[in-house]
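Hi Prof. W.,

I finally got the RNase H type-1 domain-containing protein prediction working! I wasn't sure whether to trim anything, so I left the full sequence exactly as given:
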Amino acid sequence: MIAIGMALDFVLEHQLFCEIWILSDSRSLIQYLVNWRDVSDRRGMNIFNKLRTLCITCVLHLQYIPSHANLKYNDIADSLAKKGTTMPQAYVEPLSYLELY
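And this is what came out:
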């Protein structure tokens, strides 16, 4: 979810108003975003406010992509994600108990 928030920040900052695809191999994350009416945590509301801003000028898509299924770009995405974990990280607010569970 942090990566989606950062990607939306990038789109807003650079005014890249176009068609946006959010692809994730986390089925629970996609379900979380689809069930936006039930979200009450701070991080989720922050993402939904960004999505609401973007949906005025963009077409937004949410897509579940199964992991480890020999899809064309899945291996590239996995290697980039692993590489990203070794890079210095920006400060992210600690999660509350409710956000963790």
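Residues 1-9+16-75 form a domain with the Nucleotidyltransferase; domain 5 fold (CATH 3.30.420.10). Does that look reasonable to you?

Thanks,
D.
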